[in-house]
Amino acid sequence: MDAERNARQLRCYHPTLIPGLLQTEHYARAVIQSDDMLNDEEIERRLAVRMDRQAILTRPDPPILVAVIEETTLHRADEGFRGVMTQQIGHLLECVKRGGVLVHLIPAEVSVHVGLISPLTLARGADGDWLGHLENHIGGTTIDRDEEIATLLTRWESVRSVALPKGPSELLMKEVMESWSTI
Fold it and tell me: How far apart are CA 63 and CA 50, in angstroms?
């Protein structure tokens, strides 16, 4: 989290979820509550931490955030989750409009790519050095060795290369949001 707070640039990809820095409170709560090993106090604590992290995007001189999201993630909802997803996609579009945040969608037609292996976050500090983070079920692994960072940067470029550009990504987000609000 220190690397995230001190970053000049962040690159985030998650194969199944909206990245935490871009989650609405309702979406984040649903994701956190899905872990039935957590009690109500821990859910609220984790939710507060997740929402507090987002302050870096609205501070003076925020980092540039580039997020790659699977289109299928935007479609993953049942009848009761439709409103949450409509709000979440609207929030993504607001973040992009505000500036400093780019969201690229990987269209559902792209069935297999290297990113599906695991979530990936890269943070570039003021000194120009990169730090990586790979999420897993018990927290994650921080990557700081040059050769491993080089591998993660290459993986990032592979993931980003299958995603749509900015304009088409925004149009697709709007289409998905409209589909949720008209069903």
Answer: 17
144 Ramachandran zone, left/alpha/beta (phi>0; psi -120 to 50): alpha
Using the structure block, give the residue that is written with the tokens 């080089």. 150
The CA–CA distances, whole Å, from 59 to 12, 14, 32, 99, 117 equal 19, 24, 25, 12, 33
d(CA 165, CA 96): 13
CB count within 10 Å of CB 150 equals: 11
* Nearest-angstrom CA–CA distance, 58 and 31: 23
Residuewise pLDDT in 10s, the chain (183 residues)? 688 889 999 999 999 999 999 999 999 999 999 999 999 999 999 999 999 999 999 999 999 999 999 999 999 877 778 889 999 999 999 999 999 999 999 999 998 888 888 899 999 999 999 999 998 777 789 999 999 999 999 999 999 999 999 999 999 999 998 887 765
Q: What is the pTM of this model?
A: 0.92
| Distance from C-alpha of 56 to C-alpha of 140, rounded to nearest angstrom | 21
